[in-house]
Specification:
Layout (H helix, E strand, L loop, with lengths): L2 E5 L5 E3 L5 E3 L4 H13 L3 E6 L14 H4 L1 H13 L1 H5 L2 E2 L10 E4 L4 H4 L5 H12 L3 E5 L22 E2 L4 H7 L9 H8 L2 E2 L9 E4 L2 E4 L5 H12 L1
Helix pairs in contact: 1-9
């Protein structure tokens, strides 16, 4: 059976440039839509977080005012039905990347708080990259890519085409001015060939085994691309 590892942030706060923090975590749509589609495709899905901590879902990503009542109701129901899985994720440091066909990282500002500097996240991504396994991430999830460095100190994603939450969307969302660093800008500086579509529109980039989505609206399209790549 095809096995997929979804790595979720364990952060429940996001630290702003002035040192203050605000509630954060995983953006609901980016986990739920991905997980739902991969499960429906018949894949085995394991969840992992740093320390095996139960992930926090960003409250804003469940707000009917932001996502609509229908989506809010569906997401809350999905989280309730999958509560046991979310309460007991794998410990990221125990994960053997060789056991999986794909590594998937949803976003939210959580990854900008923890996954971008997590050594086990980096190890798993390097192993997956070296084995040409499917690596997929959406929105702020590609912050996790920044943790990857091979034995020679090289970034395995240098020169690779990818997308992520854009600097312009960060500005539009009202978080750019208080951020200590911007994701798209950081990926470009690290050596990524960054591409973007219209703000808030569904947009993905496929570069071999590397599949990335720009924002929450890109999650469904990205999930379909992961399924296609694994089949």
């Amino acid at each position: 059976m095809t096995k997929v590892l979804i790595v979720l942030s364990a952060a429940d706060r996001w630290t702003r440039a002035d040192g203050s923090t605000t509630e954060s975590g995983v953006w609901a749509e980016e986990f739920i839509v991905m997980d739902e589609k991969l499960v429906a495709a018949g894949f085995q899905i394991d969840l992992a977080t740093p320390g095996g901590v139960a992930p926090t879902i960003d409250a804003r990503s469940l707000s009917p005012k932001i996502i609509g009542q229908e989506h809010a109701d569906h997401y809350r129901d999905y989280l309730a039905r999958n509560g046991e899985r979310l309460r007991k994720p794998l410990i990221l440091s125990d994960v053997d990347a060789s056991l999986y066909d794909a590594i998937v990282v949803p976003g939210g500002h959580g990854p900008v708080e923890d996954l971008y500097k997590d050594p086990d996240m980096g190890r798993i991504l390097v192993q997956a990259s070296q084995a040409s396994k499917v690596i997929a991430s959406v929105c702020h999830g590609p912050a996790a890519f920044l943790a990857a460095e091979d034995d020679n100190g090289r970034w395995p994603f240098a020169g690779r085409r990818m997308t992520a939450f854009s600097d312009e969307e960060e500005e539009d969302f009202g978080t750019a001015a208080v951020s200590s660093w911007l994701l798209a800008d950081s990926l470009r500086k690290r050596g990524a060939v960054y591409e973007k579509g219209p703000n808030w529109g569904a947009f993905i980039v496929k570069d071999g085994n590397l599949l990335t989505g720009q924002n929450p609206a890109s999650t469904a399209m990205l999930a379909d691309a992961v399924i296609e790549a694994l089949r």
